[in-house]
């Protein structure tokens, strides 16, 4: 099976959040049609807490459909594209098994490179109802379903997603 982008997601709205930024941009939703991407991520997308999210090394957040199905079953609720705060929902690629430095071609003009795993933050824990569960992040990581953070690049630095 060839990997494919199922959905491209950008922030729908900023939500009030008790975290350090006071708001969160985790509420991502799929968009129709091409979206421009640059070195800081997708146009029309934002990160509320730029100290911990976004920037050149975490410009785009990818999540696999297989991992989303796993967590939908584990959490007992639907996990539609964007629900995890991801920019890309991908089918047919083991995002959890991606290696740092690995490059992915998306569409005809965009290349992204894996820079590291996405470690769940407290905002994410609150979103899935795990904010009061001791060791929640460990449980998430123990499932072996971490996700990829990607800068847009290295060649070329801008392009469209399909």
Automatic annotation (TrEMBL):
Taxonomy, superkingdom: Bacteria
GO MF, any single term: catalytic activity
Positions of the MOSC domain: 29-162
PANTHER family per record: PROTEIN YIIM
Protein name: MOSC domain-containing protein
Organism: Gordonia hirsuta DSM 44140 = NBRC 16056
């Amino acid at each position: 099976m060839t990997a494919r982008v199922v959905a491209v997601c950008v922030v729908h709205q900023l939500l009030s959040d008790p975290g350090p930024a006071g708001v969160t941009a985790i509420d991502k939703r799929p968009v129709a049609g091409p979206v421009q991407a640059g070195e800081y991520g997708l146009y029309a997308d934002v990160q509320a807490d730029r100290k911990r999210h976004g920037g050149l090394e975490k410009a785009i957040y990818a999540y696999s459909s297989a991992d989303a199905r796993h967590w939908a079953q584990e959490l007992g609720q639907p996990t539609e594209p964007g629900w995890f705060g991801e920019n890309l929902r991908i089918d047919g690629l083991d995002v959890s098994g991606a290696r740092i430095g690995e490059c992915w071609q998306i569409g005809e003009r965009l290349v992204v490179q894996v820079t590291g795993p996405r470690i769940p933050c407290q905002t994410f824990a609150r979103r899935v109802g795990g904010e009061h569960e001791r060791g929640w992040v460990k449980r998430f990581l123990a499932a072996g379903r971490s996700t990829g953070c990607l800068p847009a690049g290295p060649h070329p630095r801008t392009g469209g997603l399909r």
